[in-house]
Amino acid sequence: MKRVVLALPRLHVVGSNYLSRLVLGILSVWVLVHLAGAIFNFGWMIVQTRQTAALMKAPPAKFSASAVELRLRETNALRLADPSRQDLHCNEGSSPWDYVCSFVVVTPPPPARMHFGVRVNSNNIVEYSTVTPTGVAFLPLPKAEAGQNRTGKIPAS
């Protein structure tokens, strides 16, 4: 058997080493750009997760002053629906009260402005102080027995 040797000419292209390095460089840059994009997106996802967690830990918005006024009138809590009690206004209060509300008692003469403290949660009135004349400090919060609400007593006047 005769042995056949196939000899292919060896092609030596000038700069073939340069071409392979160029292709590898372009490929490396492409991979790095895609990795950087993925890393940036992952970093942004972490930031958004932290922001969402911070929002979830934020306390709920409290009942507004106008909502307190409306609720007090609707429930007639301090007999504020009586014609003898007028001009109800609630404003931001100081600790421990969220709001300080005042109204005018027109009978018996002379008219007297009264005020009281109100504590609220996100959707309701939680407690209120005793009603005192404007300029007189609120009475201390009533002591609550276990399991009872600490709601101040309302004078009958």
Explain how this protein is built.
The structure is a single chain. The chain is of the alpha+beta class and 157 residues long. The chain has helices at 16-57, 65-75; strands at residues 85-92, 99-105, 112-120, 125-128, 132-133. Strands 1, 2, 3, 4 and 5 form a 5-stranded antiparallel β-sheet that branches. It has 2 domains: 14-58; 65-133. It is rod-shaped, with a radius of gyration of 39 Å.
Task: Label this structure with key terms.
157 residues, alpha+beta, 2 domains, five-stranded antiparallel beta sheet, 2 helices, 34% helix, rod-shaped
Chart the SSEs and their pairings.
Layout: H1 16-57, H2 65-75, E1 85-92, E2 99-105, E3 112-120, E4 125-128, E5 132-133
Antiparallel strand pairs: 1-2, 2-3, 3-4, 3-5
Biggest sheet features: 5 strands, antiparallel
Unreliable spans are 144-157
Q: How many β-strands, per DSSP?
A: 5
**Through-space gap between termini:** 130 Å
Tally of individual helices = 2
Order of helices and strands: HHEEEEE
Overall mean pLDDT stands at 77
Describe the global form: rod-shaped
Supply Rg.
39 Å
Structural class: alpha+beta
How large is the share of residues in beta strands?
Answer: 15-25%
The overall number of domains is 2
Give the helix proportion (percent range): 25-40%
Structure in a nutshell:
This protein has 157 residues and is an alpha+beta fold. It is 34% helix and 19% strand. It has 2 domains: 45 residues; 69 residues.
